[in-house]
Amino acid sequence: MVIDPIARQTDGESVRIARDVLSAGAEEARVRLLDRPQEMSRAMAGIQSGRVVVVGDDRALLRAVRALHHRGELATHPLGFVPVGPPGSVTVASALGLPSDAVQASRTVLNGPTRPLDLLVDDAGGVVLGALGIPAVPRQRTTARRSWWRPSVAPEQWLRVEADGRVLADLDRPVREVSVSPADGLAAVVVRHSELDPAVTARAESVTVSGQSFQYRADTVTYGPAHCRTWRVRPGALHLSLPTG
Description:
- The chain is of the alpha+beta class.
- The protein has six helices and 14 strands.
- The protein starts with a strand and ends with a strand.
- Keywords: Kinase, Transferase.
- It comes from Streptomyces bohaiensis.
C-alpha cells in the first residue's frame, strides 16, 4: 500500500479509513508512506511481487502507472486505487467507475475483479489512462466514462494528424480540436475543423500529431509545447481493480 503525501495533507481521515479497511482485509499488507510525490518511482522499484494499492489523487495513480510502465512491470503488478482528494483531483478515478467513498473504494480493492484496461503510450515516455485532447483546455464537468476532457474555448491550430499513416488533417486547413482515447484495443481519434463541419473520425493503433507548436492535456496533466508526438495503444496493459458491473 503506497500512500501519497498530498492525500494525507488534504484528507487524513479518508487515508486512515482506507488504511484500516485494507489492513484488516489483507493480513500481509505493507504500508509505504511517501514524503514527497516524486518518491513514487522509488516506491514502485522496491516492490518485488503482489498487488500494488495506491491511495491518493489522479496524479498519484498516474505516477504509479508511469513508473511501472517504465520498468516493464505493468503486467506483473495489478493495481488497486483508493481515490482521495477534492472532486476536481479525482476525475480520472470517477471516469473509470471507482467509488469516491474511501470504504467502498477499499472494499473494491479487496473484493472487486481485476480488469485489463488499454493505455496510450507516447514517444516521450508519457502514459494516458483515459483521454488526451488538443488544445489543453479541461472540461468543467462530466459524468460519462472516458469523456472528462472537452475544450470550452478551442483556438484554431495548424496541425497534421495521422492515424496509422492515414491523414485526417493537414497543414492546409486549421484544426479546432483533436481528441484521442483508448477504446477496445485501438485509439479512437476525433478531429474537428470547425463547429459546423462534421468530425473526422478513425480508429488506429498509432496516432501522430505534428506541425505548429501545441500543448495537450492527457488525463489531468498539461504537457508541451511539442512539435510532434506519437501515441500508441497498449491493449490491456493495465490491470486495475474495479467494481463489479
